[in-house]
Design a protein that fits this description.
The chain is mainly alpha-helical and 220 residues long. It contains eight helices and two strands, in the order αββααααααα. It has one domain: Arp2/3 complex 21 kDa subunit ARPC3 (Orthogonal Bundle), CATH 1.10.1760. Strands 1-2 form a two-stranded antiparallel ribbon.
Length: 220
């Protein structure tokens, strides 16, 4: 890949994750075999793009660059949440009547905000470390192993942490929202992970296409 690809992947990674957290305000609905209807935050597609970018960053530029990118994006996400909060509390123009809808879409509870940052930080660093480890253990071959293995594992961690904290533990201790517990919480985790797993498998196609055209240093 060209040297400029590092900057492009870093920016795309950051934009994808910030977009994923904003678009997650909408809950998409899918009918899955054997499970029925499952509600999934609409940001899962943007998350898939972010995981593809992080894998490509490790593939071409090393895990150090990828870790730095993750840390920078976490900071950017926190700043984005603060800026959204400032926009929400600004006084509305007398002729603007959409404040309640604006807050409903962008004003996530503290439970969701904190859970998303924690899940992002933990899961993305796991993805980078695992991808790098699998690359070393396979001597740069079997690209699907590191691509699928790292994303499937980190997506599982992300889903359990985000749903478990954002909808279970944090609301329970008073950070906002109504707690969801028991089997209902488990079913949300399982359903969301299945949808994210499908996206993780699909992103193997562009990963192979890109790395086939421009082999990484580990495979040359």
């Amino acid at each position: 890949m060209l040297p400029s690809s590092k900057t492009t992947l870093q920016v795309l990674f950051g934009v994808s994750l910030v977009t994923a957290n904003i678009t997650a305000a909408k809950v998409a609905f899918f009918d899955l075999p054997f499970m029925g209807g499952v509600g999934v935050p609409a940001g899962f597609v943007a998350f898939g793009v972010a995981y593809l970018c992080s894998d490509l960053l490790v593939e071409y530029h090393g895990k150090g660059v990828a870790h730095d990118t993750v840390n920078g994006t976490i900071f950017a996400l926190v700043v984005a949440y603060l800026l959204v909060g400032v926009a929400i509390i600004m006084p509305s123009a007398p002729f603007w009547e959409l404040q309640s809808q604006y807050v409903a879409v962008l004003g996530n509870s503290a439970s969701i905000l904190v859970a998303s940052v924690v899940a992002l930080g933990v899961a993305q660093h796991i993805d980078v470390r695992l991808f790098s480890s699998l690359m070393e253990k396979t001597d740069g071959s079997h690209r699907w192993v590191r691509n699928c293995g790292s994303t499937m594992t980190s997506q599982a961690v992300d889903t359990v942490l985000f749903v478990g904290l954002g909808f279970g533990l944090f609301p329970l201790i008073g950070l906002g929202g109504s707690p969801i517990l028991g089997w209902q919480l488990v079913s949300i985790i399982v359903g969301q992970y299945i949808v994210k797993l499908i996206v993780a498998l699909l992103d193997t196609v562009p990963f192979y296409a890109i790395t086939e055209v421009t082999p990484s240093p580990s495979t040359q």
